[in-house]
Amino acid sequence: MKVAFIGLGNMGGPMALNVGKAGHTLSVFDLSAEACRKYAAEGLSVADSAAAAVAGADAVVSMLPASRHVEALYLGEGGLMSQIAPGTLVIDSSTIAAATSRKLAEEGGKRGIAVIDAPVSGGTGGAVAGTLTFMVGGSEADLERARPLLEKMGANIFHAGGPGAGQTAKICNNMLLGVLMIGTSEAIALGVANGLDPKVLSEIMRRSSGGNWALEKYNPLPGVMETAPASKGYAGGFGTDLMLKDLGLAQENAAAVRAATPLGGLARNLYAAHSLAGHGGLDFSSVIKLVQPKSA
Amino acid sequence: MKVAFIGLGNMGGPMALNVGKAGHTLSVFDLSAEACRKYAAEGLSVADSAAAAVAGADAVVSMLPASRHVEALYLGEGGLMSQIAPGTLVIDSSTIAAATSRKLAEEGGKRGIAVIDAPVSGGTGGAVAGTLTFMVGGSEADLERARPLLEKMGANIFHAGGPGAGQTAKICNNMLLGVLMIGTSEAIALGVANGLDPKVLSEIMRRSSGGNWALEKYNPLPGVMETAPASKGYAGGFGTDLMLKDLGLAQENAAAVRAATPLGGLARNLYAAHSLAGHGGLDFSSVIKLVQPKSA
Amino acid sequence: MKVAFIGLGNMGGPMALNVGKAGHTLSVFDLSAEACRKYAAEGLSVADSAAAAVAGADAVVSMLPASRHVEALYLGEGGLMSQIAPGTLVIDSSTIAAATSRKLAEEGGKRGIAVIDAPVSGGTGGAVAGTLTFMVGGSEADLERARPLLEKMGANIFHAGGPGAGQTAKICNNMLLGVLMIGTSEAIALGVANGLDPKVLSEIMRRSSGGNWALEKYNPLPGVMETAPASKGYAGGFGTDLMLKDLGLAQENAAAVRAATPLGGLARNLYAAHSLAGHGGLDFSSVIKLVQPKSA
Amino acid sequence: MKVAFIGLGNMGGPMALNVGKAGHTLSVFDLSAEACRKYAAEGLSVADSAAAAVAGADAVVSMLPASRHVEALYLGEGGLMSQIAPGTLVIDSSTIAAATSRKLAEEGGKRGIAVIDAPVSGGTGGAVAGTLTFMVGGSEADLERARPLLEKMGANIFHAGGPGAGQTAKICNNMLLGVLMIGTSEAIALGVANGLDPKVLSEIMRRSSGGNWALEKYNPLPGVMETAPASKGYAGGFGTDLMLKDLGLAQENAAAVRAATPLGGLARNLYAAHSLAGHGGLDFSSVIKLVQPKSA
If you measure CA to CA, which chain D residue comes closest to B274? Predict the structure, then answer.
């Protein structure tokens, strides 16, 4: 199978490498010449343009930063939608507005191009290890076509529903994650302010009704969990500004459907304050700083 | 061992029965004559007063609604502290301000009475089944003295730290739980507003980084989880007004130690709005109504 | 001067009538045939299309519901930008995203068409009475050209800055207003819950450091201020769903510039909850219901 | 008239001086020997104890930091309630829990001592200048008895209602003020992030429906208003930690009466975060830093 891969950033690059290792004929492209050189050096075949990359491809995978990049790539004048052959499968793994994913699927539908939205979670570590989680929007049949490729890049594949549903599932999940992380940070900070041992308190809550993913895998207080970003200076992991972007998408979506998300909205604005304080590049669990005494 | 048990409400009554079944000589009391009659009918030996109940007791267990009741029972003029013999162990399982628990322990210390705070989670179901979780504040030695009794009433016993730490651990946990439940409700409601199947979305988030106790055990949307209060008209479980009380204690504590808990504070006020709307008697997971269209 | 007016809704219709009364040659249009009939009956000259309305116009005024309508009117294929003669002045009074206003101004700039954004506050009452407040974005010179027309429709004209600044000023103001109204509602409800007389409390706060527009002009509690919507069943005024839209625009803008607006974001989500509870059509001051006992 | 004044802190000291200047026979006391020396040097007659100060007084004024100090002064064993002669008027100007004020009034009632709660706003500047605002709880007759004294210390005297109503009115007002200040800060910061001139935006909002006390008297952005604390390095004024205390009292009160105050609760927690970040000693308008880029 011939595969085109567009977008070789921190996530897309390692994902493309995993597809390449699986023995597919792969043609890749990125607007950044530097990214192209980097992955050419890793042995990938770099095309001269996105259009050249998709020529003759059975499947196209894209991994771009935001809605406007996806619109520009596929839908603008001379966009890929007019270059890709009917019958091709397009897997867009970018995290973007659900409305944009639906527009893409609709446009594909008119031309006989199958489109699924397949945003991921799992971070750059998961991208390298091929253990990402995919949340897929589109028809079941198209997901089955995509599955062999997705399995090269990820360990969990969820079918969320029709076009755009992958995006919606992801922002719902990440909005909840943003809330969990701040809520967990507040509970730990409150305990510490009362003199409790944070390891003891974290373990009690983990095994009680406060139990959640942050307490299981990603404790925000340095020293509680050796492998967590908190214990490594909040390096690596999932950056504050990426969480901020996802929470912004959730609020954009909430506005579009008139949903009420008071904690999700507050989480977005607290991450924004945390970013304004200069912590945008740190792992998102560093948000605990917002509720800790400064010297801590 | 002779045990006195003060406070025979929805929680205290079944807890006392479990202590009684274990073969201890038990003397119980409640200010409500009706409660006394009810548990006399269940075979418990009802004393004429709290003072009479504790006479000659090796251990005293109390389960009262709020700080002021605990202060009145133990610390007022003629309070139990002046009635209980030195060497006795006092286990206060009421959920109250940590400061009150510390005052009780201090007062006990002056008189050679060992005091631990041991608030519970697990609801009336756990009280009846003897599967409560105890979060204990006090010395390790006193906790070990109490353990045989606690094991008659509960399945999990955590040592949170010194006097008052049981209270702090409980309000930290319940504050986090209050946040998790609203955050989970918002995420599900947002997905539903976008046309997602709530069962599918709940399962995706449960297995992803949004995973938390509410998604595991207590989904707030009717029909997703058969055994959850949501699927039984929000009956039983842990009432909105009890959650509201615990979140109020958390804010009182946060004010006392100058902690910042933005999501915890908002959760308290959203439960208050939910209660004002007439839902104080429903299970606390009914808070999802606040973010659902009215007809839903 | 020949003026075209596009958009004859609850706001646009009365605004067009005021322009007409001032003696300008006026050609109007709305996509709704009903609206066209209504204002034809009021004596306005209705064109067959937007393009026909703007033919030969010295100035074009538009008043549309949302960004997408403005984009469709001016920027789409065959949009007005390609129909309007160079040298014409365009005054867009719609409340839309600042980014859309800037795009419009830029597009106009390429074609020699002067564009200002001039969103209004003051509600339908102000539209009828010609007492609206205009917040204008664009060059000072273009504002001076527009001033005679704006003065027919409004009483206050503020120059907020360059293109889009009118929109930004309006959403900043309305975000603050949304916050003021809920904050004032909470303060009054808290006082009432403590047994205070709401008139006395409102007057104390109005004359103290809690003083704000809501306490001056628009008390949210029925009976405190006879002329306020609260005392008329929350009819008329500025609807909850319109406030919800503006607060959504503010959050969209905050996401775009990475600003932190915790109270503004919470206000948006509380209005959303209020709307979901079935109050979207009531005046926005009815949000006090969210913090009142149900029977109140 | 013989007046006793207890509590010579930053507020109480200047208030006592103003009473002294008015020609009353004044006997003052403070637990701090340093404060006593300072006001002895200013010419006030310092008593050896609170009990000595109130001996023979027609009126007692107190100005203490918190509920526990007021309880200790008046209600403890040997407290002033047992020292003050029947018929005396007690004016407690401390900002404390309404419940404590009511307890004091009740205790006074039993002994024929008239008690009013009369917390103030206006800051140390107002205390020195004698321009404080008093919010009074108690009977109208007792307020009239107090009025001549209050007029020596303040410019505005409001009767809020029965015992405790002064406290409630004050925390309602200050909760609203806390909300206004953050809301105003957010609106200005959002405008600035969009390139607006903060002076222009502030003026537009001040004259529109966003108008409030902060925009009138106390703009939080340095440089907008020369006389505001913001333009003096946030020195003087009303400190962040004092606002934090008042917002904590408001939440304590809301918990006691089961009121919902989502913005008020969030404001408390945002001030707490601001204080944790090291800004507790700055004027409360410095909370704008929380929503500004760090370098700003």
Answer: D260
Span between the terminal Cα atoms of chain D, in Å: 54
Pairs from D101-104 (Cβ < 8 Å, separation ≥ 24): D101/D137, D101/D163, D101/D164, D101/D166, D101/D167, D102/D163, D102/D164, D103/D71, D103/D75, D104/D70, D104/D74, D104/D75, D104/D163
Burial (CB count <10 Å: 0-12, 13-18, 19+), residue C111: middle
Q: How far out from the chain centre does Cα B1 lie? A: 26
Which residue does chain A place closest to D291, by CA atoms? A273
Q: Which residues of A touch C259 (CB under 8 A)?
A: 272
Query: Any residues with CB less than 8 A from the CB of A76 and at least 6 apart, and which?
Result: none
Residues present in chain D in total:
296
| pLDDT tens by residue, D200-219 | 999 999 999 999 999 999 99
Domain with CATH 3.40.50.720 in chain D: 2-162
User: What does the pLDDT look like over C256-296, one tens digit per residue?
Assistant: 999 999 999 999 999 999 999 999 999 999 999 999 998 75
Q: pLDDT (tens digit, 9 = 90+) per residue, B16-58?
A: 999 999 888 999 999 999 999 999 999 999 999 999 999 999 9
Nearest to C61 by CA among C15, C136, C6: C6
Average pLDDT, integer, range C164-172: 97
Looking at chain D, the domain(s) classified CATH 1.10.1040.10 span 168-291
Q: Do the chains contact at A291 and D276, CB–CB below 8 Å? A: yes
**How many angstroms separate the Cα of B280 from the Cα of each of B170, B270, B276, C190, D256?**
21, 12, 7, 18, 15
Residues in chain B: 296
The topology under which CATH files domain B168-291 is N-(1-d-carboxylethyl)-l-norvaline Dehydrogenase; domain 2 (1.10.1040)
Q: Number of CB pairs < 8 Å for A and C?
A: 66
User: What 3-state class would DSSP assign to C261?
Assistant: coil
| pLDDT digit string, tens, across residues D51-96 | 999 999 999 999 999 999 999 999 978 899 999 999 999 999 999 9
Report the CATH architecture of A2-162. 3-Layer(aba) Sandwich (3.40)
| Mean per-residue pLDDT over chain A, rounded | 96
Give the model's pLDDT for residue A237.
80
| Cross-chain residue pair D291–A277, CB shorter than 8 Å | no
CA B4 to chain D, closest CA, distance in angstroms equals: 31
CB B262 within 8 A of CB B251: no
Measured distance CA(D189)–CA(D57) in Å, rounded: 53
pLDDT in tens, B126-161: 999 999 999 999 999 999 999 999 999 999 999 999
* Alpha carbons B104 and B118: distance in angstroms, whole number: 13
Q: Is C277 on the interface with A (CB under 8 A)?
A: no
The verdict on a CB contact (< 8 Å) between B183 and A213 is no
Hey, which residues 143-172 in chain C have their CB within 8 Å of chain D?
156, 158-162, 164-165, 168-169, 171-172
Q: How far is CA D1 from CA B48, B131, D4, in A?
A: 56, 68, 10
Residue D210 contacts residue C121 (beta carbons within 8 Å): no
CB-based contact C158:C133 (threshold 8 Å): yes
Contact check, Cβ <8 Å, A276/C269 = no
Tally: H helices and E strands in chain D: 12, 9
**Token pair for residue D221?**
């952005």
Q: Residues B205, B208, B213, B217: is their CA dihedral positive or negative?
A: positive
Question: What's the ipTM?
Answer: 0.94
**How far apart (Å, rounded) are the C-alpha atoms in residues A87 and A85?**
6
First to last CA, chain B: 54
Buried b (16+ CB within 10 A) or exposed e, D253-273: bbbeebbbbbbbbbbbbbbbb
Mutate one of C168, C182, C194, C200 to test the D interface: name it (highest D CB count within 10 A).
C194
